[in-house]
Fold Asl1-like glycosyl hydrolase catalytic domain-containing protein.
Amino acid sequence: MATFKLLAVAAITSMVHATNHPPGKRGLGSNDGLDLSGFESVGPIKMGWQYNWDSDIGGNKLSSVEYVLMLHSLHDGHENVWADRVNKWLDRGTGHLLGFNEPEQPLP
């Protein structure tokens, strides 16, 4: 498991300087609690957005990218907070939303 995490971090880190694609096409998915400060400390990043499989983010938002919230599912009350969080992030400049379909987890 630690090897996989190390490989994932190395692959994502290599994107920081990899090519000259427009930053809007690259995004970063990360779980809350993961330290992302290294991405911005190496210089301008070539990513335009980030997400975390949720509709809100803690202190892990990179300052130079757009946070794109996701409606992951209708389980566990995700839909109860969706409208409020959409408005919150639209007010902060978010211009995109993600929806996620999990056909293997149908609602009862």
